[in-house]
Model the fold of this input.
Amino acid sequence: MTGRFRVQQVFLDGFSAIAPMLPGVVPFGMTAGIAAVEAGLDPLMAMGMSLIIFAGAAQLVVAQLIGDGALPLIVVLTALIINLRLVMYSASLAPHFGPLPLPWRASAAYLLTDQAYAVSITRFLHGSVGGPKLWFYLGTAFPLWVIWLAATALGVWLGAAVPAAWQVGFALPLVFLVLLVPVIRDRPSFVAALVGGGIALVAHDAPYHLGLSIGALAGVVSGVATELMLHRRRGRP
Done:
C-alpha cells in the first residue's frame, strides 16, 4: 500500500467514524448563526466569529453577552472558561501528535471539538488506526468544521431574513438544555450543572454582566471539587 493511498484511506476512516454525528451539527450551527445576528452582529462579523472561535457553546454564550452589552473582557473570559475542557483534550492528544511539526499541531488544535476528540481518542487507545493518526483525526475534525461553517452561514442568512418580531432567539435556551441533559451522567456533572446554573441565575443582575461568567466558573470549580472528594473517598480503606 503506497503512503498516499494509506493516508487517504485513514482520512476516509475518520470521516466514516464521524459521519453519523454530522447531521446533529446542523441545527446547532444554525442556532449559533441566528444568535449572532440577533446579538447585533452583521453577517460578515457573525461568520468571522464562527470562523475564529469555532466552538459551539462558547459562540452561543458570546452572542448572548454581546447582545446584553457586556464588556469585551468579560466576553473573552467567559469564552475561555467554557472552553477550558479543550485544554484537557489537548493534553490527552499530545502524546499522539507530539512529534509533528508545529503547523500541523496548530491546525489540529484549531479543529479540536468534543466530537472529533471523542471519536479519535477512542480509536487511538482502543483500536487500530492503520496509518498516520493525524490523518484519522483530520478525517473526523475537518468535516465537522465544514458542516459547522455551512450551518452557521445558513443560520446567519435566516437570522437576517426572519423578521425581528418572530423572536427566533427563544431557541437559544432550548439548545443549551439539549446540550446539558446528555452530559449529566454522574454526581460531579450534576453538581456542576446545579451550582453553575443556580449561581448564574442568582447573579443575573451582577455588574458588568458578570453573572454568566461567575456561574460558569462556579460550576467548573464545584464539579472538580466533587470529583476530587469522590476520589478521596474511594481511596480510603
